[in-house]
Amino acid sequence: MTEPERGGPRGSDPILSVRHLTVRAPNRTILDDVSLDFEDREVAAIIGPSGCGKTTLVRALNRMAEVAPGIRIEGSVRYRGEEIYDPAVNPVLVRQRIGMVFQRPVPFPMSIYENVAFGLRLQGIDEEELDRTVRRSLEQAGLWKELDGDVERSGLTLSGGQQQRLCIARALAVKPRILLMDEPAASLDPTATQRIEELIFDLRKEYAVILVTHNMQQAARVAERTAFFYQGRLIEYSDTHQLFENPREKLTESYVTGRFG
Amino acid sequence: MDEPHPPGDRSGPDRPPAFLGPPAPAAPAPPRRERSLGRWLGSPLALAPLLLLGIVVAVLAIASEGQNFGLSFWGPVWAFNPTDPAGSTYGIALFALGTAITAGAALLLASGLSLAISIALTVYLPPRTSRVLTTLTDLLAGIPSVVYGIWGFVVLAPYFASSLEPTLRNALGWLPGFGGPESAIGGGSGLLLGIFILTLMVIPLTTAVMRESLRSVPRELVEAGLALGATPWEVVRRVRLRVARRGLWGAVFLGFGRAVGESVALAMVLGNTVQFPPSLYGGSSTIASFIFTQLDSAFFYPELLRALVEFALVILILTIAFNLLGQRAVSEVRPRAVAGAGGRA
To answer: Which of B108, B128, B222, B251 to pair with A209, CA 20 to 30 A apart?
Structure first.
């Protein structure tokens, strides 16, 4: 298998392609006509002030937005060319391909092993394969060594940062192609945050990562591309470097220079 | 000996230095005066229910004069079938059996139904429908037990006698308790009707507690399950039920405490026979219903009265035990209005 060539023309073969996505809650529009592409094996950051729709955007990318009552979604999201909002598509399969890590670390009240095995057991994977995948996922998340092989203790006994990496391992175990991360370090201390950022940096070798963050330094550190959202609209989407150094839009400039936030 | 570690140096590379932690909370303000006064007053007040309970137990124990209890259940005078209703040969075993059958079967049925109802209410039904049905089930808890009893006696008993029980006997006659001769089916009063009524009476309580336990499952956990590719039903089975487990057991215990103490409605539909029930169609008595039905004659037979007081003591201890178990289990559930879950004796 050959690695797809990097640095070629953008947008030639996006892994996820969003077109005219509009998300409405009962009395307001959360996302307004958003179109953008995400590339495979890249980290894309979504930034913007609170309430700009960044969380809703990632939740709409793996059909989690519709879990909340009263949400209406229009437009198109294509995963490798396949429409995920097609009525014939089972949202369960979408979520297996497009994993998600939440803002607060939320391990299930079970052992570390069972936490990671959760998604696999749903797919009826046999024990041997299960053992291998659990171990590999914990290794990927940088937890295996720290745990010293003790995967039978409760996931709730871990520290906050370890819990979040457990949640990442849990998401990786299902073997998604895309990982959506909704402010994964928001509730963590700086050291744990740094570990998560290093992990995200590593993950790009195998996954497309879409990272929501309110922390512009974080976006600058880990993301190749950054999208700036304001009041439900996509204002600017470009190379992270360019967006921070030389934004095209006035609004982006005032946000990244800290004039509002 | 090794050099002792300096106290501040806890090794471990990824432990964040202390100064990076959250800022230490400001020193707590000294407690205000009325608050400490409230605490001072509060502690003896908090003991009041305990004291009251102690008094009740003591009065019951004294009133029973240690008459039968120790002897009649375990001792030589233990009698499964008391031959002398006015005498001192009352054993509690027969009535305990009645209580165990009715409360046990009712709880089995009520737990299953309540679980189904609360899953439907919290997961599957649209919010508005769920709110209406929640109110309705809570309202059921407020119906006095006499009403259940008279409804069972007047409306259900004839139906049980004429169609349900013969049908059951034909269909399930091979099961122990469901068979027996045709003459076993009487006027409809009996264990089956008692179990049915008791189930209805317990359902509002168990449903309320189960529902709130399921509702208190953090949304994040549910979403985490869905995001891993679980179907809503898989999330119910593998996340919601698991996380709410303690509260669900609490509901069963609380329901059992409630069922053990029910007297009036059961006295009206159970047939009140003092016998080993030949089948589910036969009559029976529970500890509580026996107290209720024998109270007036007991005034003429001091031994019977004392035995009944002891029965009451047994029920008291049973209900307290089950309620404590239930409350301990439920205490972890996020406190939210459990309307109508109070229950009456």
So the answer is: B222
